[in-house]
Backbone:
């Protein structure tokens, strides 16, 4: 008789989707090595050995009106995060060009704050126009909640993809944030899609959620047809309500989660994001568990790895870089 991993692997390879109960069964009963190997096989079938490099820049930091309990940029908490207003167009372009030279093919700019409408929108549109003119990278933006008409304007300005994380399941979200609603987040994703933007949305592991919450979030992302999914692990920041909490998730759990996410949405681009230091010297293992993208350089408020070292890690794992112009060896 086939075990749970091989029978669900067969199901996925045949083009069928697994349901939440099956995902939970994998989480509870699959043997780790077998689970990771199966997930890697699914990644290989659906995405080959292509990997994309995302670079991010925080162009407005801190003083956020929201109370997301993990976030160093919330005005509710006393953290050491640097606060600054929207940076100038030239500074963003100069920063982006440096990333492009290093092989980054997807460049994301992010702003703290509840909603895009709280920003100097014309300046943000100008930044996208300048980036479209002066770089060839795919442009991604994370500016909080979005209105439908704003999504159209962002697309016109050159944005390719809107980034807005669900963070966790709908049920657990109320434990994470009380100043806006999960439905607001889902609507933002829908508005972006309606305007013809690609969407990127994922979550954070280690907020205190259960495995069921993680699976539910991934099921919601599948229903929303989100195909770029950042996978983050909590990096506790002093001063936030979760700041003094030891990271409650083990390295093995992180890898198992990545594998289960890949089983749930076989074709998605799973992007290895913040908190990956948790895997220490074993960060390459995430790619053997089903990951297909990576955030390189610094994260929004925390330092990251050296880009060249990440590229070398990917080369050693046999990956090639995806770019809008096709793929080429790294
Ligand atoms: S809305 Fe964004 S910037 Fe503001 S506290 Fe939440 S995660 Fe942080």
Residues:
């Amino acid at each position: 008789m086939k075990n749970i991993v091989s029978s669900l692997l067969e199901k996925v390879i045949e083009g069928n989707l697994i349901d939440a109960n099956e995902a939970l069964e994998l989480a509870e009963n699959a043997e780790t090595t077998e689970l990771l190997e199966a997930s890697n096989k699914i990644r290989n079938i659906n995405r080959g050995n292509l990997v994309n490099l995302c670079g991010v820049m925080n162009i407005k930091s801190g003083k956020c009106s929201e109370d997301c309990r993990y976030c160093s940029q919330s005005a509710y908490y006393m953290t050491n995060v640097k606060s600054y207003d929207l940076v100038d167009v030239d500074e963003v372009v100069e920063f982006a060009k440096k990333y492009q030279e290093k092989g980054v093919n997807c460049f994301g700019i992010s702003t703290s704050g509840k909603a895009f409408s709280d920003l100097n929108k014309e300046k943000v549109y100008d930044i996208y126009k300048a980036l479209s003119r002066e770089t060839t990278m795919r442009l991604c933006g994370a500016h909080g909640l979005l209105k439908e008409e704003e999504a159209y304007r962002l697309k016109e300005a050159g944005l390719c993809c809107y980034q807005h994380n669900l963070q966790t399941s709908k049920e657990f979200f109320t434990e994470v944030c009380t100043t806006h609603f999960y439905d607001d987040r889902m609507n933002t994703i829908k508005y972006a899609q309606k305007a013809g933007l690609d969407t990127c949305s994922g979550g954070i592991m280690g907020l205190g959620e259960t495995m069921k919450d993680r699976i539910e979030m991934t099921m919601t992302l599948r229903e929303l047809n989100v195909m770029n999914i950042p996978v983050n692990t909590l990096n506790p920041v002093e001063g936030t309500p979760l700041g003094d909490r030891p990271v409650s998730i083990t390295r093995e759990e992180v890898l198992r989660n990545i594998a289960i996410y890949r089983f749930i949405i076989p074709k998605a681009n799973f992007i290895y994001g913040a908190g990956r230091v948790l895997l220490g010297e074993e960060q390459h293992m995430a790619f053997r568990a089903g990951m297909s993208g990576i955030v390189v350089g610094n994260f929004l408020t925390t330092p990251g790895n050296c880009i060249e070292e990440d590229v070398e890690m990917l080369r050693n794992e046999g990956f090639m870089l995806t770019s809008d112009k096709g793929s080429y060896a790294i």
